[in-house]
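Design a sequence for this backbone.
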C-alpha cells in the first residue's frame, strides 16, 4: 500500500532513529521501505545493511558505490530517476535519514485520509523542529500561520506562495510517471516535488504533530548561508516562471518580492538569474502602480484618457 522512501548520506548519528520510527508504524496494510544511501563514509551504509538483513522483504536498500551528488546528480533526480521508479505502493511517504516520525499511527491516519478524500493528491501534517538538542513544536505553525489559518485542505496556489509541507510529513499518491528535468539543479528537492503532485489535486492537512524535522549544519539546506538559500529560492521561482503559465506569474512575483526585499542585487554577486529576478519584480511593481493609477482615472470619469493609458500599458508590458 505504501512505499516509504528514505534518502540518507553520512547520517550515522541519526539513521537508526529514522529507521526505527518507520518500522514502528502500526498499519492494517503492508508497506515497503526503500533506503537510498549515497555512498556514505561514516558507517551509515553498514547500519542500513544490518537493518535490511533483519527486515528482509520490508527494507529494500539502494546502495551507491560513488557519491552521486559529487558527480552532479541532484537530490531531486535521485528521487525522480532512482527511488520513485522502485516504489510499488499506491502511496509514497518520505522520511529522510536525519528526520524521524513520532506517531506510530502516522501512516495509517494519512492513508485513511487519502482513501476517504480521492480529490487530494497528497496529505501532510504538522512537525516539530529539532535544533541544538531541543524540539520546538511552535516554529512550523508560527512560520506558516498566514497560510494555514486553521484550514483542513489547500490548493496549488497556497503551496506556490511558500513551502508549507515539511518533507517528513508528506504522503503522495503514486500517480506521476515522468518528472520534468527543469528542477534538477536545486539544492532542495521537496518543494518542486510537492508542487508537481499539487498539480494533480488538493492538499489534505492533518492538524497533528506526527514527525520531527532535524535542523543541523550537516544538512545541505541548513548548512547553507541565508544568501545561498535565498539565491536558490530565486532560481526556483525563475524556473517556475518558465514552467507555469502566465496566470501564476503575479503570485510568483509577489513571492519573489517577499524573499528578496531584505537584500540588494549586490548581496548575490554577479548572478544573471538574481539580476533578472530583481528586474522582473521591479517591472511588476511598476505595472501594478500603473494599473492602480488607471483605476483611479476610470473612477474619476476620464474615460478617453483612461483608454489611451490602457493601450499604452498593454503596448509596453506585452
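Sequence:
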Amino acid at each position: 500500500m505504501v512505499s516509504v522512501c528514505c534518502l540518507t548520506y553520512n547520517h550515522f548519528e541519526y539513521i537508526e532513529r529514522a529507521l526505527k520510527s518507520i518500522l514502528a508504524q502500526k498499519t492494517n496494510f503492508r508497506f515497503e521501505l526503500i533506503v537510498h544511501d549515497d555512498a556514505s563514509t561514516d558507517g551509515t551504509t553498514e547500519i542500513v545493511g544490518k537493518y535490511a538483513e533483519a527486515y528482509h522483504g520490508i527494507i529494500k536498500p539502494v546502495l551507491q558505490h560513488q557519491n552521486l551528488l559529487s558527480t552532479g546528480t541532484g537530490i531531486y533526480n535521485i528521487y525522480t530517476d532512482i527511488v520513485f521508479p522502485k516504489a510499488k505502493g499506491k502511496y509514497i511517504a518520505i522520511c529522510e535519514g536525519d528526520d524521524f516520525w513520532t506517531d506510530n499511527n502516522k501512516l495509517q491516519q494519512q492513508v485513511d485520509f487519502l482513501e476517504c478524500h480521492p480529490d487530494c493528491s497528497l496529505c501532510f501534517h504538522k512537525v516539530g523542529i529539532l535544533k541544538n538538542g531541543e524540539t520546538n513544536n511552535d516554529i512550523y505553525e508560527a512560520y506558516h500561520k498566514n497560510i494555514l489559518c486553521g484550514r483542513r485542505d489547500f490548493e496549488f496556489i497556497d503551496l506556490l506562495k511558500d513551502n508549507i509541507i515539511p518533507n517528513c510529513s508528506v504522503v503522495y499518491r503514486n500517480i506521476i510517471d515522468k518528472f520534468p528535468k527543469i528542477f534538477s539543479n536545486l539544492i532542495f528537492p521537496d518543494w518542486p516535488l510537492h508542487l508537481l503532485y499539487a498539480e494533480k489535486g488538493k492538499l489534505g492537512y492533518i492538524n497533528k504533530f506526527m514527525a520531527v524535522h532535524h535542523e543541523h549544519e550537516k544538512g545541505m539546506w541548513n548548512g547553507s548561508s541565508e544568501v545561498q538559500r535565498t539565491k536558490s529560492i530565486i532560481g526556483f521561482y525563475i524556473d517556475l516562471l518558465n514552467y507555469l503559465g502566465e496566470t501564476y506569474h503575479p503570485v510568483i512575483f509577489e513571492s519573489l518580492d517577499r524573499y528578496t526585499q531584505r537584500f540588494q542585487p549586490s548581496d548575490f554577486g554577479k548572478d544573471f538569474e538574481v539580476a533578472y529576478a530583481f528586474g522582473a519584480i521591479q517591472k511588476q511593481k511598476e505595472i501594478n502602480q500603473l494599473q492602480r493609477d488607471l483605476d483611479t482615472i476610470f473612477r474619476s470619469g476620464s474615460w478617453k484618457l483612461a483608454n489611451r493609458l490602457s493601450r499604452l500599458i498593454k503596448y509596453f508590458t506585452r
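The chain has twelve helices and ten strands.
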